[in-house]
Design a protein that fits this description.
The protein is of the alpha/beta class. The chain has two domains: about 1-35; about 45-230, SGNH hydrolase (Rossmann fold). Helix content is about 50%, strand content about 10%. The chain has eleven helices and five strands, in the order ααβααβααβααβαβαα. β4 (about 150-155), α9 (about 170-190) and β5 (about 195) form a beta-alpha-beta unit. It is globular. It starts with a helix and ends in a 5-residue tail after the last helix. One of its GO terms (molecular function) is phosphatidylcholine lysophospholipase activity. This is GDSL family lipase. It comes from Maribellus luteus. Keywords: Signal.
Length: about 240
């Protein structure tokens, strides 16, 4: 009887270990089914997403949506408009934005300014995949909040002479190519496309030095230039 119990316990333990191993294998495959990195649930993402989800919705929100370049912008001060809300998350990718788009459109915002894709490029995600995912974001906004005016902003250039992030080296051509793919997507989806890239890049496609300190993120002068482009395009906030 004792021997039977021992065998039964051993069998149960083996089954649990087997199930756990299978679950781990399936989870790992689910998290990384592609030959490039599309993950986004890092700590900063989870904390800021939870924070944004905890905030009350307001009427006529103007949303700036994107990654660290958006997150670091003090948009309220820049445009003197209290209706502006910042939904940037440093390190975010287009997969992460799509995952949290429900929160972004929950208030049925008046306007959304979307810029995303540079971190995907840094992870060597093919630009065609990035563009396709951005189209999904656009379509999600149009479906869930059809009255929202959505602007698709180009990805900004980087300055490869200044940048010290190894994963962003030799990516300037990819940035230019992605922007070329985004233009027809905006036209097909019938939304405005804002070509910030051309305003921030030199003749070699590099982010102009006055606008950056580290080769990718913007200085105060960079954000002021952003506002200037809006003014040139007649966008009033």
């Amino acid at each position: 009887m004792k021997k039977f119990k021992t065998q039964r316990i051993a069998f149960l333990l083996f089954g649990i270990m087997l199930a756990a191993g299978t679950l781990f294998s399936e989870t790992s495959t689910a998290q990384n089914p592609l030959p490039y990195d599309t993950t986004y649930t890092f700590d900063h993402y989870k904390k800021l997403r939870a924070f944004y989800e905890s905030l009350p919705n307001a009427k006529n929100e103007i949303v700036f949506l994107g990654n660290s370049i958006t997150e670091r912008g003090n948009w309220n001060e820049l445009f003197k408009n209290k209706n502006i809300v910042n939904r940037g998350i440093g390190g975010d990718v287009c997969f992460g934005v799509l995952s949290r788009i429900d929160e972004v459109v929950a208030s049925k915002p008046k306007t959304i300014f979307l810029m995303i894709g540079i971190n995907d490029i840094g992870r060597s995600v093919p630009v065609e995949v990035i563009a396709g995912k951005i189209r999904e974001i656009i379509q999600a906004v149009k479906t869930q909040s059809p009255k929202t005016k959505l602007y698709l902003q180009s990805v900004l250039p980087i300055n490869e002479k200044v940048i010290w992030f190894d994963y962003m080296k030799n990516k300037s051509d990819k940035i230019a190519l992605l922007n070329e793919l985004l233009k027809p997507i905006a036209a097909e989806e019938r939304i405005p496309y804002l070509d910030l890239y051309s305003e921030f890049a030199d003749e070699h496609g590099q982010l102009l030095p006055p606008y950056t300190a580290d080769g990718i993120h913007l200085t105060a002068a960079g954000y002021l230039k952003w506002r200037e482009v809006f003014q040139q395009e007649g966008i009033k906030l």
